[in-house]
Amino acid sequence: MEQHLTFIGGGNIALAIYGGLLEAGYPSHRITVADPSSEQGALATKMGLTWQADNQSAIRDADIVMICVKPNWVETVCQELRAELQQQTLVSVAAGVTTEQISRWSGTDRVIRCMPNTPALVKTGMMGLFSNPAVDAATCTAVESLFNSVGLTAWFDQESDLDAVTAISGSGPAYFFYLMEAMISAAESFGIAPSVARTLVVQTALGAANMAADSAHSPNALRRHVTSPGGTTEAACDLLTSADFTALVAAACTAAKARSEALSAH
Ligand SMILES: NC(=O)c1ccc[n+]([C@@H]2O[C@H](COP(=O)([O-])OP(=O)(O)OC[C@H]3O[C@@H](n4cnc5c(N)ncnc54)[C@H](OP(=O)(O)O)[C@@H]3O)[C@@H](O)[C@H]2O)c1
Q1: Which residues pair with 66 in a beta bridge?
Q2: pLDDT (tens digit, 9 = 90+) per residue, 223-238?
Q3: Which residue, 89, 151, 157, 192, is most buried by CB atoms nearer than 10 A?
């Protein structure tokens, strides 16, 4: 039988994960959502899940407790759950909150940290995972298989690597959306209708991502393959290169990583 999952916090990322699990056929009666907001409760109930406003009663029957609140709420939530925790494993998706902090606040060593991203909602999420050594292999496998139903997973030996994961795949969807916004604006400035501009850009992003995922070649090789000397793609890429596009993206990722490290330091 599937593990009983309780989500503490039913916002964006919880919806992405439980929505993806439901899409993948996970039984709705094995999922509980605890959130003080009746709006989130109504959403969960509409999708056939159990909604509880009280976190402590919500975890009583849980095997796995997914902590999906904002990072500044994690300490309060862990302290609240402390008295009810027995064999449940805590899986936190909160950016920058360490397994050591969660163990200290909750009183359990059974802690896994996950850095997911919102494409989990459409089953193309990317989840970076780190486990406290106290979690047994069977539980790690069960958690990995849950997340595999909403995307791909990668385990990391060093917890500090999750700061890099946060900067690349956790925050990464927003970088691609930003590029899409800029390309849609450019298309509109050429006189293309907004709805057509959106289709041109989104379909191109999807096609490029699918090619990169399916091909044995690197993105660099794929780019060179479509860049003819003296052609249109070369004109655009030359301009991006002269504006130091690679360094700009690296600086943006470094800023996100530094922010994740700063959050962990508290
Ligand atoms: N969004 C992403 O792309 C993303 C990616 C990776 C990781 N994460 C991590 O996911 C976590 C949640 O982010 P989010 O974007 O899903 O935030 P969110 O949409 O604000 O969802 C958090 C939910 O938790 C509820 N909540 C607040 N206090 C609570 C409590 N004491 N007990 C139970 N529920 C409580 C909030 O209710 P109210 O709105 O009423 O306060 C809200 O519905 C964060 O720690 C973030 O670092 C997010």
Answers
A1: 7, 91
A2: 999 999 999 999 999 9
A3: 89
Whether residue 164 is predicted with pLDDT greater than 70 in this model: the reply is: yes
Burial code (b: 16+ CB inside 10 Å, e: under 16) for 23-34 equals: eeebeeebbbbb
Read off the pLDDT of each residue in 203-220 and give the average, rounded to a whole number: 97
Q: How are beta strands 125-131 and 111-115 bridged, if at all?
A: antiparallel
pLDDT for 266: 62
Q: Is the CB of 12 under 6 A from ligand 1?
A: yes
Residue 164 lies in a domain: no
CA of 2 to the centre of ligand 1 (A): 25
Q: What is the pLDDT of residues 87-129, one digit of tens each?
A: 999 999 998 899 999 999 999 999 999 999 989 888 899 999 9
Nearest to 30 by CA among 7, 52, 51, 3: 3
Task: Give yes or no for a contact between 70 and 95, defined as CB atoms under 8 angstroms apart.
Answer: no
C-alpha 251 – ligand 1 centre gap (Å)? 27
CATH number at residue 13: 3.40.50.720
Please give the distance, rounded to the nearest whole angstrom, from the Cα atom of residue 95 to the centre of ligand 1.
10
Model's pTM, two decimal places? 0.90
Structure tokens at 164: 């890099």
Range of the domain at 84: 5-158
For a pocket test of ligand 1, which of 6, 15, 67, 68 has the largest count of ligand atoms closer than 8 A to its C-beta? 68
**Residue 68, ligand 1, Cβ within 6 A:** yes
Residues 110 and 12 in one domain: yes
Contact 32, 161 (CB under 8 A): no
Q: Quick check: 90 and 109 in contact, CB under 8 A?
A: no
Confirm or reject: Cβ of 13 under 6 Å from ligand 1: yes
- Reported confidence tier of residue 8, pLDDT bands at 50, 70, 90: very high
Q: Are residues 83 and 106 in the same domain?
A: yes
